[in-house]
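Shape matters. Shown next:

___
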Amino acid sequence: MADERDEGRRKKNLPHDPSRRRFLKGVGVAGAGAALAEHLLLKSEAEPTASALADASTRPVEGALNLALDVNGQRRSVSVEPRTTLLGALRHNLDPPLTGPKLVCDMGTCGACTVLMDGKPVYSCLVLAVDAAGKRLTTVEGLGSPENLSGVQKAFVEHDGLMCGFCTPGFVTTVSAYLKKNPNPTLAEVREACKGNFCRCGTYPRVFEAALAASKKT
């Protein structure tokens, strides 16, 4: 009896010794976990995850971009940086350049850089050149030439609708687009249509007169 008690005390004092079944079970779980981890690793390397694809789509583009712009009915090739605005591309990257749209405020408040994109006036200083690819672009040069002025251009000349001239291309472009939409506007409607263009010389009355005169000839 004493020997049995002594042997029982010794067993209690010994460290825990897992059975062979538990040991094999633990090894199996660990092995399965390692295999699963390896499978997921290989899968992630072979197939990009959604987050990886999202990171790739938002990765900044570097280097020059070769674009084809449809400007005044012509296909024009241009090489620009991704950050280049449409105004910058027209004035500095095209060969020969188009300088009708003017760089004045460079923040979309004055309208001197106005061009038509698919027939609608836009501030070209706020549009990236890459976003203008595939669009139909018209600058003031595309509305008429010195030898063959458009009706709006003639009206601006005849009614002295300009002074320093920096804002004039934007006004001419804006009025030309508006008269196609509303060929018989009132003075109030012309004023509203031109509210996105700013004349530092204050030639608004003559600009509005020119617009109304051009509307009668359309």
About this structure: The beta strands are 65-71, 74-80, 114-117, 120-123, 136-138.
